[in-house]
Write a structure and sequence with these properties.
The protein has helices spanning 2-34, 72-93, 105-122, 144-148, 183-192, 203-218, 231-240, 252-257, 260-264, 276-279, 290-300, and strands spanning 42-43, 50-54, 61-66, 127-135, 159-168, 173-181, 224-227, 246-251, 284-289. The chain has 11 helices and 9 strands. The chain is 46% helix and 19% strand. A hairpin with a 6-residue loop joins strand 1 (42-43) and strand 2.
Length: 304
């Protein structure tokens, strides 16, 4: 009898060991499938410098597009259209529902204007500029109307959120500026309500994490991002990024006020960007190690 019990006990041990082994292997397989290294970067066959991927959880495409002499005018006009049509959208839709604030559009536009004016010619060998955005349609297949909309409509563009990304080929960290929903997305939200997937994934985190993933492949020295997000975006970053990967610094106003040329001429800070000081109120310099973004990719993306 004792021998039978010992025999059965050994069988159970072998059985549970086998189950544990299968579970561990299955977990490793899942981890491998979801790991950042397995995330395919699609590079456009039609347009150089365009990278994109689809997130199945939200149905949105995440895109990173290099700014060039060929496309910068389209992006500047797109930003101007957003500003011009926001008031019209407010009058049409705000009576029923309040439209989300689009303050990021002005810094987005101003940074592109500055890049067009100076860096495309003088600093093209040192810096690259990108537009990073979320889109409801495939950026590889979208025509100009689906991408940039029309001059008068506030609903024609498929772009949901945008930001500029500037990267130096000589430094370890790049910068983002001007993140904002588009007027078109604000109108969609006003008419249809927020998407059900909003609580699952963060739109800014989709942009930032995929951008880092692509940059790490194309600019191997890159370690992360330095930015000045407004309070709402900073809270999102702090929610999803581990504490050890994020550093919060001085407020933008404090940092700029200490610069020698600003002390000598306080108007320097507001030169050529009259709408930005209010937007940056409360913005704090934030440095994020890219490993935090890779962790978000691994844990939150269901992509193809």
């Amino acid at each position: 009898m004792k021998k039978s019990i010992v025999h059965i006990h050994k069988i159970y041990q072998i059985f549970y060991t086998g189950i544990a082994f299968i579970c561990v292997n299955f977990a490793d397989t899942l981890h491998a499938e979801n790991s950042p290294e397995k995330i395919i970067v699609h590079e456009s066959k039609k347009q150089a410098g365009l990278y994109y991927i689809e997130c199945k959880k939200t149905g949105l495409f995440i895109a990173l597009e290099k700014i060039t002499t060929e496309n910068i005018t389209d992006w500047i006009n797109f930003a101007k259209r957003q500003e011009n049509n926001y008031g019209r959208a407010l009058n049409k839709y705000a009576a029923k529902k309040t439209l989300p604030n689009l303050n990021g559009i002005a810094p987005f536009k101003n940074r592109l204007l500055n890049y067009e004016d100076k860096q495309l010619s003088k600093c093209k060998n040192d810096y690259d500029m990108y537009a990073a955005y979320l889109m409801h349609t495939d950026p590889e297949e979208s025509d100009k109307t689906e991408k940039f909309g029309t001059t008068t409509s506030v609903e024609n563009s498929s772009i949901a959120m945008i930001t500029t990304i500037q990267i130096s080929k000589n430094h370890d960290f790049y910068s983002a500026l001007g993140i904002s929903r588009t007027v078109d997305e604000a109108v969609r939200i006003s008419k249809n309500g927020k998407p059900k997937t909003t609580h699952i994934n963060s739109m800014p985190m989709h942009i930032y994490s995929y951008t880092y993933h692509v940059f790490k492949k194309n600019y191997p020295n890159i370690q992360g991002i330095i930015s000045t997000p407004v309070l709402a975006v900073r809270k999102i970053l702090q929610k999803f990024i581990p504490k050890e990967s994020i550093t919060i610094g001085a407020s933008l106003e404090d940092a700029f006020s200490k610069l020698p040329w600003v002390e000598q001429d306080p108007t320097t800070f507001v030169h050529s960007m009259p709408s930005e000081p209010n937007f940056f109120k409360g913005a704090v310099m934030t440095k994020i190690n890219g490993q935090g973004f890779l962790g978000y990719l691994q844990n939150n993306f269901d992509i193809s």
